[in-house]
Write a structure and sequence with these properties.
The complex is a heterodimer of chains A (365) and B (300). With 365 residues, chain A is α+β, with helices and mostly antiparallel strands. Chain A has helices at residues 49-57, 99-109, 114-128, 143-155, 173-190, 201-207, 225-230, 235-240, and strands at residues 9-20, 23-34, 38-42, 64-69, 72-73, 84-87, 161-165, 193-198, 210-215, 218-223, 247-254, 259-262, 265-268, 280-287, 292-295, 303-313, 317-324, 327-334, 344-349, 355-358. Chain B is mostly helical and 300 residues long. The chains are: A alpha+beta (365), B mainly alpha (300).
């Protein structure tokens, strides 16, 4: 790790390790975030995503490694000296101060001249449309307004890097989608680097330039949302991303890796977009619900026989649950094409969108 | 009558309640008896303190005074003798005030910073430190009396007001630290993090964020300390000299003087004068007290 800092990298995490006593929370992590990039850290609870964010903010002392922000080594710097602004899940507004007081607290600590504080608060309030609220206390604000103020508090700091720690998790569904759009708009307008922690894959897929899917203190895959969705690098990412999650079939690849065999059914792997599959005694085929189609007649090598069990209409489309052998499979169909229960059908597989995983390493082939 | 009116003819609206049900008589009866039980001693004290000695000798302790006199109160405050001093409780009152104010201020200042540091600025061994502190509160006072006398003597503080202030500060620390620690740990950690990102330091966060949010617990601590220190007798009698005896010690000396006639009216007045300060504090801040205790109790 001796390469020189490229100016285009806003954040560089080098060989970051964090241990709490004997427990290893982050393991030898490397992450480069480009200038103006929107990175989402996504993962289940306890995967270390918030911990990583706290390390970036300087709120946790790391065990080993380096953190660079804007070409500065900030590994040992105080949170306030790192050029970051942070937004928390619980808003973390100071209850005894007005909105104006909340937004100017950090600037006063930094000894910014009063006139400049007034200017910056006014600008942030204008961007976030919270001007009428400036003299209210946080208790007199709704959840959405509070989170706007919290974003404003980061905004006035005039920093290059914003850190969001599950900022929308405390809001109801409607507000969440509204603020999600607003954050995206904010990013388009300010072009700051943003690191955003969430466990909500919709937020991740909609907001991110790149998503880092984490588990057990390790980044499993770091890629653009579509890439992660279409070509998950391993079984965990495949199962974690997508709702409902990917359908998995356990089986083997035969005939030199040209055919996937599972429970007596054969599927041709002709057109698979991964590497050469090769013959494997154990492999897993992953298929998303929208990459399966219910058809009446079997097509050799392209369909699986299935029985319709139940369906869940969800407005525009319907999720149909079927059984292939004893494997439950979900398929997304337009709501008017729902098949009746108990019917014997065939599932046409779009093999070019499928993923094949090695059973042992759980890596995508 | 149609069906509609028939349907409305049954019971509707709020259920009527009888004022004088058997249950109510029981509840109010018990409450009244309990009130009497607690108020009677106070009644006897107030009545006795307003009587002259001849009337007291008649022995009707529950009877209100025939002739009201405030002489016992005046005597208790400014004339009663203890040893050679004949300036009543007033001397002890001012001694107690002089002990009280720095003790309360110092003990709360130290304990609140302790609690804050233990919650938000955890250091190596902070758990051990806390355990030792709590353990300290379980050691009986009597065991430590003599060692402390020696310590104070070596420090040159024995017998004076400041020696007693120091003792009160130290002995108040365990329970107050526990109180503050529990309260501060109920304040969301993210607030503390936000303040650090905003560039506030140890004292900045303490004074500008934590303290303004913790008024109830400061009131609780103040009440605990004011009443505790005001009512203290043991430390007062052991660590101070007659010139600087606190009010409680002086009260004891007045009430227990063996010479002359027992002046019950003066004793009663003196006792009430001594108890007045904690009483006033409770009345003023009772509501805040309950709120603070409840808030601190939720999280351990």
């Amino acid at each position: 790790m001796t390469k020189s800092i490229e100016v285009s990298n806003s954040i560089e995490v080098r060989d970051l390790t964090l241990n709490f006593g004997a427990t290893s929370v982050l393991k030898n992590m490397n992450l480069n975030v480009a200038e103006g990039e929107f990175i989402v850290l996504l993962g289940p609870s306890g995967c270390g995503k918030s911990t990583l964010l706290n390390c970036l903010a300087g709120l946790l002392d790391i065990t080993d490694g380096q953190i660079w922000i804007k070409g500065q080594n900030v590994t040992w710097a105080e949170p306030s000296d790192r050029g970051i602004g942070m937004v928390f899940q619980s808003y973390a507004l100071y209850p005894q101060m007005t909105v104006r007081g909340n937004m100017s607290f950090g600037l006063k600590n930094a000894k910014v001249p009063a006139a400049e504080i007034v200017k910056r608060v006014a600008r942030a309030a204008e961007i976030l449309q919270i001007e009428p609220l400036l003299d209210r206390k946080p208790a007199a604000l709704s959840g959405g307004q509070r989170q706007r103020v919290a974003i404003g508090r980061a905004l006035v700091r005039d920093v290059d890097v914003f850190l969001f720690d599950e900022p929308l998790s405390n809001l109801d569904a409607k507000l969440r989608s509204e603020l999600r759009v607003e954050i995206k708009r904010l990013h388009n307008r300010l072009k700051n680097t943003m690191v955003y922690v969430t466990h909500d894959q919709i937020e991740a897929l909609t907001l991110a330039d790149r998503i880092a899917v984490m588990r057990g203190g390790i980044i499993q895959q770091l890629a653009a949302p579509q890439e992660i969705y279409n070509r998950p690098s391993n079984l965990f990412v495949a199962g974690f991303i997508g709702s409902p999650s990917m359908n998995f079939f356990h089986g083997a690849t035969t005939e030199g890796g040209m055919v996937f065999e599972s429970g007596g059914n054969k599927l041709s792997l002709d057109g698979y977009d991964g590497g050469a599959v090769g013959a494997r005694e154990e492999a897993i085929l992953g298929l998303r619900p929208e990459h399966l189609e219910i058809v009446d007649a079997a097509i050799p090598g392209k369909t699986l026989p299935a029985t319709v069990e139940i369906d869940e209409p969800m407005g525009a489309d319907s999720l149909v649950w079927l059984r292939v052998g004893d494997v439950p499979v979900s398929v997304r169909v337009p709501v008017e094409d729902r098949p009746e229960h108990g019917r014997e059908v065939h599932l046409k597989v779009e093999i070019s969108k499928a993923s094949v995983f090695d059973s042992g390493s759980e890596q995508r082939i | 009558m149609g069906d509609a009116t028939a349907a409305m003819s049954g019971p509707s609206g709020a259920k009527p309640r009888r004022r004088l049900s058997g249950r109510n008589i029981m509840v109010y009866g018990i409450l009244i008896v309990m009130c009497m039980y607690y108020i009677l001693p106070l009644w006897v004290m107030v009545m006795t303190s307003l009587k002259g000695m001849p009337e007291i000798r008649l022995g009707n302790i529950f009877a209100p005074p025939v002739e009201i006199t405030f002489q016992p109160w005046v005597k208790a405050w400014s004339e009663a003798c203890t040893g050679l001093n004949c300036d009543g409780l007033s001397r002890g009152f001012w001694n107690s005030v002089q002990i009280l104010i720095p003790s309360v201020f110092l003990s709360i200042a130290v304990a609140s910073v302790n609690g804050y540091a233990l919650v938000n600025w955890r250091f190596k061994g902070s758990d051990l430190f806390f355990t030792i502190l709590i353990f300290g509160s379980f050691i009986p006072y009597q065991v430590m009396l003599y060692p402390i006398v020696i310590l104070l003597r070596e420090m040159g503080l024995y017998g004076g007001l400041w020696g007693l202030v120091l003792v009160h500060t130290v002995f108040g620390m365990p329970i107050l630290t526990l109180l503050f620690r529990n309260y501060f740990s109920s304040i969301p950690e993210e607030l503390f993090k936000a303040a650090r990102v905003d560039g506030a330091g140890f004292w900045g966060i303490y004074f500008r964020i934590m303290m303004p949010m913790s008024l109830p617990i400061f009131v609780v601590a103040m009440i605990l300390q004011v009443t505790g220190i005001w009512n203290d007798f043991l430390f007062g009698v052991v660590f101070t000299k007659p010139d600087v005896y606190p009010m409680t010690v002086q009260l004891n000396n007045i009430v227990n003087s063996v010479q002359g006639v027992k002046e019950y009216n003066v004793n009663m007045a003196a006792t009430m004068l001594t108890g007045l300060v904690p009483l006033v504090i409770y009345f003023i801040s009772g509501k805040l007290f309950v709120r603070g205790i409840a808030a601190g109790a939720v999280k351990g």
